[in-house]
Every structure is written in C-alpha cells, then in structure tokens.
Amino acid sequence: MQSSDRVLAGRYAAALFQAAAAKSEDQKVQGELGVAREGLLGQDALLRHPRVSIADKKKLSHAELDGKIGATTLRFLDLLIEKKRYELFPMIAAMYARLAAEKRGVVKAVVRTASPLSADAQKTLSARLKKFAGKDIELEVKEDPELIGGISVKIGDWVLDSSLRGQLRRMRESIQ
C-alpha cells in the first residue's frame, strides 16, 4: 500500500464515521464492518477483479451480506465498489475502529512480550498504561520470541521498549 492509499482510506473512514455518528450508529457500523469483512473474505478476488462488472460485484456483496448489515454499511460498500476502491476496505475498517475507540476515550496498546502474560499481569499493565495515557486502554498482546525477554508497548506513536533486545540495541548504539 502506498501512503496515498492510507490517506484515502483515512478520508473514507472519517466520512463513514461522521455519517454513522450523525445517526448515532457508530458502534453498530463498526460491528457491521467486521461482519462484512468476514462475510466477503472469500470473495475478495472477485470484488477486486477489473473484469467483473460493478453490478455483479454489488449483487455478490448484497447476496453475501443480506440481512447481516444495515443500510449505511451496505451503501458504503456499494460506494467503494462503484469508486473501484474496495481494496482499501480492510484499511478503512481498521481506521474506522480507531476513530470509534477515540470517541469512546479508549486507546489501543499493542504489547509484544517474549513469553505469555498472565491475566493478572495484563490487568496491572493495563492499569499502569491507563494512568500514563489518561485514557482507557485496550490491550492487544502478542508473543514475540525475538524479544528474548521483557516487553515492548506501542500506544499510537509512543513506544516503550523495555525488551532485552531493545536494551542490547541501545547499548550497541551508545558504544559506537
């Protein structure tokens, strides 16, 4: 993906979020985007293929999602198909989720650990990050054996790297 695609996806996500928020459907639409993504997962190749007509793509998406999503989300998917921007759908859905979380005052923290975190450790980490960020924290914990030991936390643009690998890297940089 190019940076222009990210910008465009951000604009689509913001427009959808504004439309949904105006109808007080922002949470509903967020859930429906996930349902649509799962429902159309097997049809991605057809929905992106340039030789499949727009009308056929719409019929396919309507058939797969009939009764599963609301009118706002369905119209949005139709718009993406009409504008030949369906390939941006996964990125748009992720950006929409970020906008919805910001509205609720929730920040996503991606935590990488060398070994699994217990439920108590996750609660403690979440509480400390909430105190630091001043917002509710949604943890996404991933195991990364390359870290050797410790953890790395990313919240937005802010990164706390207290992993052994990060400490070794910083030590090497200070010596050079």
Strand content: 5-15%
Please tell me the total number of domains.
Answer: 2
- From the coordinates shown, what is the CATH architecture of the largest domain? Orthogonal Bundle
Look at the structure and give the mean pLDDT. Answer: 89
Main beta sheet: strand number and arrangement? 4 strands, mixed
CATH topology of the largest domain: Peroxidase, domain 1
Q: How many whole angstroms does the radius of gyration measure?
A: 20 Å
Number of DSSP helical runs: 8
Strand line-up of the largest beta sheet: 2-1-3-4
SSE run: HHHHHHEHEEEH
Looking at the structure, what is the overall shape?
elongated
Stretches where pLDDT falls below 50 for ≥5 residues? none
Distance between the termini: 35 Å
Broad structural category? alpha+beta
Report on the structure:
Helices cover 60% and strands 14% of the residues. The protein has 176 residues and is of the alpha+beta class. It has two domains: 3-102, Orthogonal Bundle (Peroxidase, domain 1); 105-175. Strands 2-1-3-4 form a four-stranded mixed β-sheet. A hairpin with a 2-residue loop joins strand 3 and strand 4 (158-161). It is elongated, with a radius of gyration of 20 Å. The mean pLDDT is 89.
